[in-house]
Amino acid sequence: MGHERTPTLNEISMLSWLVYGDPMRPLGIAAYRGVYDFPRGADAREIIHVAGSPRAIVALTKHIVEHARKKSLRVFGSIGMQNRSMMALLSGLGYVRTRIVFEDR
Questions:
Q1: What is the CATH number of the domain that holds 63?
Q2: What is the C-alpha radius of gyration for the chain, rounded to an integer number of angstroms?
C-alpha cells in the first residue's frame, strides 16, 4: 500500500483550478491538468478533482470540456466505483465509461 503524503508545491502548480461561485464560499471546485494520454496516443485534459453542488459540478465539467474542445483535446477523469451519484450525473451529461482503472489495495 502506498504512503500518503501532501502534494508538493510543484505538483499543485501543475493543476489548473476552477471555482464556481463566491471564492470565499465556493459552491464547487475543480482541478485539471494537461497530460499525454498514452492509451489514446494524444494530448488530453485530465480532470483530477471536481466537487460541489450538482449545478456546480455540471458547470465546472462543461467549462473544462468546452475549453479543451477549442484546442481539440479529449477530456477524461476517474471516479470511484462506489460513487454512483457522480456516475449518474456524468451519464446524464452524455459522458461514457471507456476504461477501467485498476489499483492495488
A1: 3.40.630.30
A2: 14
C-alpha cell at 57: 459540478
Calculate the dihedral angle through the C-alpha atoms of 100, 79, 88, 66, rounding to the nearest 10 degrees: -100
CA-based end-to-end distance of the chain: 6
Per residue in 11-54, pLDDT (tens digit) is 999 999 999 999 999 999 999 999 999 999 999 999 999 999 99
Examine residue 7 and state whether it is found in any structural domain, yes or no.
no
Angle at CA of residue 71, ends 38 and 35, nearest 5°: 30
Does the reported pTM lie above 0.85?
Answer: yes
SS3 30: strand
Confirm if 47 and 32 have CB atoms less than 8 A apart. yes
Does residue 69 lie in a domain region? yes
